[in-house]
Amino acid sequence: MPQDQQLKNEIFEQTIKKNIKRKSVFVDKVEFVNNVPLFSWLDINPTELCNRRCVFCPRAETELYPNQNLHISLDLCSKIADELRSLHYTGGVALSGYGEPTLHPDFIAMAKIFGKDIRTELITSGDFLTPQSVADLYNAGISQILVSLYDGPHQLDHFRQIFSEAKVPESHYFLRDRWYTMDNDYGVKLTNRAGTVIEGNQTDVEENRPCFYTHYSMSIDWNGDVLLCVQDWNKKIKMGNLNHQSLIEVWTSPNFNKYRKVLGNGKRALMPCKNCNTNGTLHGKEHREGWLNHYKNAKN
To answer: Are strands 119-124 and 144-149 parallel, antiparallel or unpaired?
Structure first.
């Protein structure tokens, strides 16, 4: 392997490890509600719009995944935030999902709803960020702004200047190098998105492999649907809908429990999991143990 390529690999691996370590502080912390392990990560899809077509994303196929002018309502955001506060939630909320969150027409107001007392992250390409919008997000209570830099190292200075002008401390933003080629998995934790992407050096699908997404995380679509997980871009498996159900009702629903038990036992026998090559064990080991104890106690 050429020396420069080896260096790129090492830098990429360090970036991935840094991001995992950053999240582990709060994502891997298990809290209980009525003896049930509570989710510690909510991924909210604010909009079905995205201005980019990354080759490693299902949106690269515009006929299969077209842009749609669909956005989560502020009322639904308020309902979710109120329930999180009533649960004394200490996990994370990610405004990211399946589109570019800053294309939501009220993305500043959406951030403000979750406010300073809920750990909330905005994950963006940064294409529409300005010093003013960054300052507004910071003042709205966003805990961290994660900017994925797809175009090249020159973006580092550009965004550092934006955050400096906005007077946002370095602890509140994270510039993620994502400008790599296919040789470095494009700088992302490359997966096939439950069988919807074939681009890049994809790992093989292993049916006898555990996955803990359903043990610690919830993925909420723009219309309130709770999806199987953030990897399921087909959105065919629905756990419930938050417009008429509570977070806890959906989290403890029979369908969630069915997938949780199968995946926790190391089987990807159900669709779309049987087509998915994501690791699924980077977080959630402690939550899986909590669920195993919960199911065991429920039998006694």
So the answer is: parallel
Interior angle at CA 93, CA 217 and CA 221, nearest 5:
70
Our separate counts of H helices and E strands in the chain read 9, 10
Q: Return d(Cα 258, Cα 243) in angstroms, integer.
A: 22
Residue 190 tokens read as 């490359």
Partners of residue 148 on adjacent β-strands: 176
Half-sphere exposure of 266 (CA within 13 A, CB side): 2
Look up the pTM and report it. Answer: 0.91
pLDDT (tens place) for every residue of the chain, 300 residues total: 454 555 455 555 666 677 677 788 899 999 999 999 999 999 999 999 999 998 878 888 888 889 999 999 999 999 999 999 999 999 999 999 899 999 999 999 999 999 889 999 999 999 999 999 999 999 999 999 999 999 999 999 999 999 999 999 999 999 988 887 767 666 667 787 888 878 878 889 999 999 999 999 999 999 999 999 999 999 989 999 999 999 999 999 999 999 999 999 999 999 999 999 999 999 999 999 999 999 998 876
User: Cα-flanking dihedrals φ and ψ of residue 54, to 5°?
Assistant: -70, 140
